[in-house]
Each structure stands twice: as structure tokens, then as C-alpha cells.
Design a protein that fits this description.
2 copies of one chain form a homodimer. With about 475 residues, chain A is α/β, with parallel strands linked by helices. Chain A is built from 14 helices and 16 strands. The relative contact order of chain A is 0.13.
Chain lengths: ~475, ~475
């Protein structure tokens, strides 16, 4: 069956070998989304193993959300994770927005054309020039102190946070932060609670570590904390300042409930604050970290603010995790290179980052306004907006519509890249009338053209 | 006992919780090297768990080499791993050679003072200048093509290897390469065969992944392939071009035996070619990769050649591992930053690297000659050299001497940093008369002073 090869001489149990082969094939796309797995009976017969072996492998795949099975239906490869892999924000493989799409509403894409390249280039040059010779050697897993001090100042200026540079750890971006958290705290079979929908790509580190990922529903205000329950979770992964992808800000009551739940269960809260630099009205949202620095691990990044290839992020860690973090980072990739660290510290020290964020906030707010206005003109009362006025994308709902495969096929044909919220759902079927529109990287004309295309496709396929 | 806390409500078995707590404490230094673990009986009583639970946790620690137990003796925290952590080459935490040591014979330290900083700085500036705008966005987990093409050329020029840029994957250094290999191929309970002694820090990724590490003895020629046996291993980790730390070059017969063994057992050979740029006599050693590109994963780095903080290495991967590698890299830290990649490609294209390696080969060969001569003058027939004329350190043996704790205490007192080969051994007690001298970063005067100090300490404590 499919050329699955099991090694009976191996010290790895057959069920584990089978699970691993199928998992790898799903993750690398050899088994595409929606593919039906053979029945346990027929696969067991073909592989000459007990049916129990196949059942256990399948159950593990189901538990990890890699395949779905509904009573009475066949077992299929889940489509959430894979479409994510091909289409999602920060994890897309090499595929610059090109002529393949007429309009690309991909989420999580900052505008690169307005980035002050020359200033950065000079800053990088100065950084290499003034670096003490020792920094050409290893300078430690925590990251350079001047950068950590500047980030401490930045957290205060941008979010009102009081954090010591001692508790800040530089990472090679937010993805690595999640990877290291999974490596330090995750363990086979442990439970990780996540928002549903969420940035499913960010869960991969937990899945690769063998954790069980349990979805908790999200509404307009973010995580529904009254649905927190179940076995004690090691980790709760959440985006409280701007829920990804639906955009809610977690209200104070839910924040308190969440922290209480985490304390009672000894869970760590992983707070991913991926884009709160870009709020277009009201004060900055105070991070959860301000409520509890013992249970909350705060994850920040400069990829959205500056440019994705920078690969510099940071975590704010509770003291008791410092030793294990340093150990894991040392044996993962030792440290960040120093040049970007020194340059970024400079950029922060001279308030070049503050200036750039102020400028881009205006640019993005403008684009958002144009998008909302164009949607209003095109769809009248047919649609609603979700979430807070923040970030680089918009979640919109069309009550009564169902975005079906025919719709997305038409989008592809017409050159419109647009993702359904459904792509980011672990439990399928709850968000079928919602779409995500990434607008950060698009000029006004492209936004208008995209909405026109969307309108034509909706009229053509759904009305 | 020691404040160990077990959570009886957790879905993680108690033995696993206990194992994990002890492992973390050993790795973060809370349980120092040599510390005696309580007897299984007394710990079981104190924690109110079955003795079996404690035994299983201890057995896992023993299997991973974290604690040692000899029949009739108490169970103690192994000292190999920990001294390694504090003292070894590429994994040292922030601790530049400073006034703490009068002479620092640490291994794996390249000379930084002769690095052409200005040239590198200009190259970095040019790289940032000519980078296409897309490269400020994500450019993919495999690394930039121009760099991979230059590395392909470099592998041919420096080692006679014919490797396609398609099979080269850029990493954030050799440590990350090992980490990703463990992540892609390692699985709890799987077997990894390693040289003994070896760069024990490099094993940490396998241990963190839950693999069983099994030592295979090394003699003057490298891995004793006639001792390869045991359960099928997933991975064989080896340094055939210049065994670390003893310096042997694996002879052709053993190479063939190793590849045969790997093919028969379906094992991958991880070939760590950490310093073969620096050979001072004879032709370059042909890597194992030349014998088998299906079973061999080749790991290279530029940290030793240029400077440790660069964080650029690479692997040459068998085709069937490409998809899983890209998946793991994407969810580990996405990609390297582009600036160093473009700058290094430039450095290679203009043959600046070739020139620098030629220059440093002369510098290091000189230092090696001075070290050997000074040792000869100081110790006459009392000592022997091990290994090939290559690299940045020397393994030496003093037949009949035993370097005891008193000796190393005296070294510390007198300000001499020098490591016993024993630090890198998994099975203890076989290499007690051998020392490692890192000389790459030391001027002639420092080398002579270090040997004088060594002579005084040996005379004082051992003769």
C-alpha cells in the first residue's frame, strides 16, 4: 500500500514507524489534503501487521490533527495544516508575490518598498565597524546586552511594559521562540491549549515534539476562557493583543480568568504579541505579561515591524526558565549572529525604529481605510468586519454565504489569492463564511482591484 | 529529597517526570558533576513512589550518559558532559579569553586578530546594497542559491567533492545542522552510535530528542569499525577527516567497513568535517560523502575558518531527506538572515576565503611547530603526540602519568586552562594520561609560557 516500508528489525515499534511515515508524508505533501487513508483493516492486511498497530498509528495522527475522522466517514488528511503550509504568512517557502497572482491578499506581509534600506545598510556597516573583536567569537545564547537593553526601552515606549534586560532573550525570530519553548517545556503526550482558529503553522513545533494540541474556541473578543478545561495543560498558546486571525482583543475579565486557570494548573501562558505595534485607534493594549511574570512567556518579533528576513525576535522569560532556555538555545544553534543584533540596537537607540513604525502606522491605517471603504462600496450590507483596528490583515464575514471549493477554484483561476478563516481552524466547519484579507503590502490600486475581483467571483459562484 | 515535585494529576508518568527533573537539573548545573544521587530505595521512600519508578528514571539517565554507575559504587552525575558545557570549543557561553587565565589552551578557538575585518565589513555593506528587495522577505529554508553555488565550488576546490547546489542546505552553523538532523531523524529510544571520545556537546541534540547514545571506541586511526555492532542504529555520528579530539584520519579500509555497516543497517552516517581546511601536510582527505551520497549526511561550517559568530554552516543531504529537512527548518527558525549569506557568497566568489585560509594555514602550522618544539624541549621522551598534522589543537599523551584532580586544581590555581581528553569520553577511565592543547588562538610567546606552566605543574603534582 503506497510503498510504506516497515523495518521489523528496528527497535522502534511498528505502530511508531507507521505513524511517522504517514506524518512525514502528510507534512511534506506526498499525502495531499483531503486524501483518504485506507481502512485500518485493509492497511493492516497489506502491511502484514495487526489491526491494532494501524489503529494506534491512526489515533496518534487524529490526536495531532493531521488527519480527521468523523463517525461514519473515512479518515482523511486534514486540510488546515497543509493549505497553511503553502499559503500562510511568516512560513511561506520561497515564493515572492509575482505575476502568478493578479492580486495577492496573503496575510502577514509587511510593506518592504518603504523600508529605509540605505539607513539600515549604513547601520549594519557601522555595527560591523564598532563591534569589539570578542563579538566575532561567541557571545552567549541570551543575546547581546546592548540590544536587550534597547528592547527593554522599546517595550516600555511601545507597550508600557517594565521588563529587565536580564529577562529578555534574543531569538532568531518568533518561530524559533516557539520552537525553543516546545523544546524546553514540551514533552511527548503533553497538552497544549490553543486558540481555534489560530496561526496553525506556529503549532508545528509542539506537534513535532509529540505534544497533544487541544483547540479552544474563539469569538469576537478572543479566546473563550469559559471553555478552558480538560487535563492540566503544560502550555496555553495565545494572541491576546490581536487574536490571529480574527482580530479580537481579549477583555480584562477573560485575561484574569486565563491567568487564574494557568496558575491553578501550573500551565505556562505563551503570549504571542506578533503585531501590536500597528494599532490604528486607542491606546496600546497592555500585554498579559503585565499581569503575571511567573506564568507568562512573552514572545515578540521585529519581522513584522521591519522585514521578515531580519530573523530577530525575543522572549521575556520567567526566571526559573532561564537555565533550561540557555541550555536549549546553546544546543539548538548557539546564538544569533552579532551584526543584526548590533545594528538593531543602534536602530532602536537612535529611535529610527520608532520613526519607521509611526510612518508605517499611517501607511497601513490608510490602506485599511481604503480596504474598508471599497468593501463597503462593493458589498453594502452583505458583509461585516471582525476584530480590532490593528495589524496588517482584516477578517471579514459574509452572513449567509458559504465559501465553497468552487469559489476558491475560481479565485485561483482569476489570479486572486485569498484565504478562508477555515484554513486556520482545527475544528472544521465553524467559520465557513469568513475570509482573510492581507493588505499591508498592497497599494491602494491593488486593494481596489482585489475587492473588485472578489466581488465578481462571489457574484459568479455564490449568488 | 532535593525538593523534587511530582504531579500525580499529570498525564505524564511519574518515572518520566522524575527523569525529566533530574535531567534538567544536571543540564542546568543544579546537580553538579560528581554529585551522588540518592539510592533508589531512599528516593522512592521520600517521593512516595514505587522503587521501580525510580529505577526506570535512573536507567534512562544512565543510558543517556548523564549519570554513571559502576557495580558496587554509587550513582553519580557524569562529569564529561558538564565540563564540556563549561569548557568546550564552539559551545562555550559568554566568556572571552580574559585575565582569568594566564594561558588558555581551550580547543576550537580560531585566531580572530588576523581576520580581515575591514574587508568583511565592506563585503557585508555591498551585500546589503545589492540584495534584491525580495530578499528582505523570506527566501526559503534551503538558503540562497548564489551561496549554495559558491559552496559547491568551494567543496570542489578544498576537498575534491562534486556536489550539486541542489543538495546543499544552508544552516545557522554546525550545531544547528546536528539539531535539525536529530529533529528529522531522531526519535525517542532510537540508537545513535558515536565515537568515544567525541565532541560531547554535539550529542546534546540527540539526547534532548530522547535518543540512546552508544559509544564506539577510537584509536590512533579513528573509529574502531570492528567494534560496530549492537541494535540497528539510526545515525552514526563521526569525524573521519580529523577525529575530534584525538586527531586520527579514518583509513580507507575502515571507511569501507563503516559504509557497508550503514548500508546493511539502514543507518545514516553524519560526517562532521569541522576543520579539514587546516591540514599542514599531504593532500586533503576525501570525505566519506565521496563514497556514498545516499547514506552520508555531510556537515560543514565556516565558523572555524572565518569566525565563530558568523553562524553559517551547511549540510549536503541525500535526496530523500530534502522534504523533511525543509519542513523542519521552516518550523525551527525559518531561514538564515540574508546578509551573511550574500556576503559569504561574495567572499567565496572573490576567493577571499581561499586567500584567508592559505594565510591562516601558514599561521596555524607555525604555531603547531612551535608548540611541538616547545613540548619536545620541555618533556623530552616523556610525551607522545596523537593524530594528524591538522586543525587547531593537539592531543598529547604522557605514558605512565595519570592526570588527577590535584593536577587540574593546580592548573586552575596557576591560571592554565587545559582539558583532559577524559572530558570528552563517554566511557571513563581509558584516556587518563592524555591532554588537549588548543593553540590556534595563541601567539608563540603564549604557547611557550603555557608549556612552561604545564611543565611546572606536572613536576609539582605528578612527578
Amino acid at each position: 500500500m503506497w510503498g510504506i516500508e516497515l523495518n521489523r528489525q528496528s527497535d522502534i515499534p511498528l505502530k511508531r514507524q507507521l505513524y511517522r511515515t504517514l506524518r512525514d508524508w502528510i507534512l511534506n505533501g506526498r499525502l495531499p489534503a483531503g486524501e483518504t487513508l485506507p481502512s485500518t483493516r485493509s492497511l493492516a492486511r497489506d502491511l502484514k501487521v495487526s489491526r491494532n498497530t494501524v489503529c494506534e498509528a491512526y489515533e496518534k495522527l487524529i490526536a495531532e490533527g493531521l488527519v480527521s475522522n468523523h463517525p461514519g466517514a473515512s479518515t482523511r488528511v486534514a486540510d488546515g495544516l497543509l493549505i497553511e503550509k503553502a499559503g500562510a504568512a511568516s512560513l511561506t517557502l520561497s515564493e515572492p508575490p509575482g505575476p502568478r497572482y493578479v492580486v495577492d491578499f496573503q496575510t502577514g506581509q509587511p510593506e518592504l518598498r518603504q523600508f529605509p534600506r540605505q539607513l539600515w545598510q549604513k547601520t549594519l556597516y557601522r555595527a560591523a565597524q564598532k563591534m569589539p573583536l570578542e563579538q566575532f567569537g561567541l557571545s552567549g545564547p541570551q543575546g547581546l546586552l546592548p540590544l536587550r537593553e534597547e528592547i527593554s526601552g522599546w517595550l516600555f515606549r511601545s507597550r508600557g511594559l517594565n521588563v529587565s534586560s536580564m529577562d529578555i532573550f534574543i531569538t532568531a525570530g518568533a518561530t524559533q521562540a516557539l520552537h525553543l519553548i516546545a523544546s524546553a517545556l514540551g514533552e511527548t503526550g503533553q497538552t497544549v491549549l490553543v486558540e481555534d482558529p489560530c496561526h496553525t503553522g506556529m503549532l508545528q513545533s509542539f506537534l513535532n515534539r509529540g505534544c497533544r494540541v487541544i483547540p479552544v474556541a474563539v469569538d469576537r473578543q478572543g479566546l473563550k476562557t469559559d471553555e478552558l478545561s480538560g487535563p492540566p495543560a503544560s502550555i496555553i498558546y495565545i494572541t491576546p493583543s490581536h487574536q490571529f486571525p480574527l482580530g479580537g482583543i481579549l477583555p480584562a475579565g477573560r485575561r484574569a480568568a486565563l491567568v487564574r486557570f494557568a496558575r491553578q494548573n501550573g500551565s505556562y501562558i505563551v503570549e504571542d504579541d506578533y503585531d501590536s505595534e500597528f494599532r490604528y485607534s486607542g491606546d496600546p493594549v497592555a500585554p498579559l505579561l503585565a499581569m503575571d511574570s511567573e506564568q507568562v512567556i512573552y514572545v515578540g518579533t521585529f519581522s513584522k515591524v521591519l522585514f521578515p528576513a531580519l530573523r530577530v525576535g525575543y522572549v521575556v522569560l520567567p526566571r526559573k526558565l532561564h537555565p533550561i532556555w540557555n541550555e536549549r538555545r546553546t544546543y539548538t544553534d548557539v546564538q544569533n549572529p552579532p551584526f543584526e543584533q548590533v545594528a538593531l540596537a543602534d536602530f532602536l537607540q537612535h529611535r529610527d525604529l520608532d520613526k519607521y513604525v509611526r510612518k508605517m502606522r499611517r501607511v497601513y491605517a490608510d490602506r485599511r481605510r481604503i480596504l474598508l471603504q471599497t468593501l463597503q462600496e462593493g458589498f453594502g450590507h452583505q458583509w461585516q468586519v471582525w476584530g480590532d483596528a490593528a495589524g496588517l490583515h482584516l477578517a471579514i464575514e459574509f452572513p449567509g454565504l458559504l465559501f465553497n471549493p468552487e469559489f476558491f477554484k475560481q479565485c485561483l483561476t482569476r489570479g486572486l489569492r485569498i484565504a478562508p478563516v477555515e484554513n486556520y481552524c482545527l475544528r472544521k466547519g465553524q467559520h465557513l463564511n469568513q475570509l482573510l484579507i492581507g493588505y499591508g503590502h498592497l497599494e491602494a490600486a491593488q486593494i481596489r482591484q482585489g475587492v473588485r475581483l472578489l466581488q465578481e467571483i462571489i457574484n459568479h459562484t455564490l449568488n
